[in-house]
UniProtKB/TrEMBL annotation:
Belongs to the Vang family. Residues 1-18 have a biased composition (Basic and acidic residues). GO terms for cellular component: plasma membrane. The keyword Iron-sulfur does not apply. This is VANGL planar cell polarity protein 1. It comes from the Eukaryota. The chain crosses the membrane at residues 57-79, 99-118, 130-151, 163-188.
Amino acid sequence: ERERERERERERERRSDDNWGETTTAVTGTSELSVSQEEVVGLGKGIQDRTQGFRRYLPLAVGSCVGLLVLATPLVFLLLPAVMWPDRLQACGAACEGLFLSISFKLLILLVAIWALFLRPGRASLPRVCVYRAFLTTLTLLLTMSYWLFYGVRILDAQDEDYHGIVQFAVSLVDSQLFVHYLAVVLLELRQLQPCYSVCVIRSTDGETRHYNIGQLSIQRAALSILEYYYRDFPLHNPALLSASKHRAAKHLAGLKVYNVDGAQPGNGNQSRAMVTAAAKRKDSAHNELYYEEADYERRVRKRRARLVVAVEEAFTHVRRMKKEDERAAPSDIMDVREAALAIFPSMARALQKYLRTTRRQHCHSMESIQKHLAFCLVNNMSPKAFLEAYLAPGPTLQYGPERWMADQWTLVSEASVTNGVKEGSEFLLRCLDFSLAVTVKSIPYIRLTEEYIDPKSHKFILLLQSETSV
């Protein structure tokens, strides 16, 4: 019976059509009053789209305004006395002119530093405001307003005539702003570089696990770093493999039959006990079925892979032969790389399609992406193995199209406030539509390293030579 069932599965696979990714079917049982998951997600999508751009560019706008205020304030301090009471100002000597040169270069350095640290495009939209950024913005505003208050009371009201002192006052403001920027570099960039915690990231559906070291970060910043690691290191999430295991479990349960021996209507409890009893009797044969099924699957994968490797090698050999012929042909007869890729693709398309279907990754690669990758390999004179590496093993998420990134569908679930720093035993969840990432935090232990001195004289020895020996 097992062999007949395998033959029927192979026959269904042979009769399947040749369209890429069009044979995947999702069967759901819903009532007339039910609402699908896509409809639930789409309820607030309109409002989210309207507020997404505002939340993305609001920090950049605030940072630009604060930066302009910081850069314009010293220049205004220098220009106001020259505009309001120029007749009573004292002459600016060589020392004062040197301060002009100093403040010019300091403002230029501060402009480049602000651009490098604060005016970068945002990588993500966090649920809460970054505490350190808010603190630095508040500190900058307080510093600027304090200088403005002192300038208004002691210089503008009194109309101070010492222009050299006014220039020194502006220079001191620029120096203070440079120190604030240094504090920003320490808090935002340097503090998190030293690893302090080890996080374990587990994907809920297939149990894929990775471990990373992070520094002193808040929960939301740690979640952002983990998602960046996820797109780089985790293989692409493939729901087709999960549905295959569920189909095998459902098929196993469907083979259990419950008989009513006495002719009475059994209750749910009796039926459950009968199913458990039948499952216990079939326990010894269940692992054999799983073993043969996995062995047959591995055999079919190896067979499809061997056919694919041979087809690709033959296609690349044909391309090399055509390239040698093109060297002797006229320039008008030389084939373009895109045309060459389109010409040799049909010879390997069927083998590649069958392999992707067998490994259940046909939805990850479109025909256009495969042809584009083939043209890229031909342009750079790559080997057939380099072309096949993208299809023989699942790659990280970023290697596929943006429609599979789910970059705007993550939700951070945490009992503690997301602005708190991570600590020993912290746990939080990163959830999207199809799966979630469970994160646990452990502290890196304190390492005590001691030294043991070895006397160099202890390694010396004496070799006695004797005439009787061969030494």
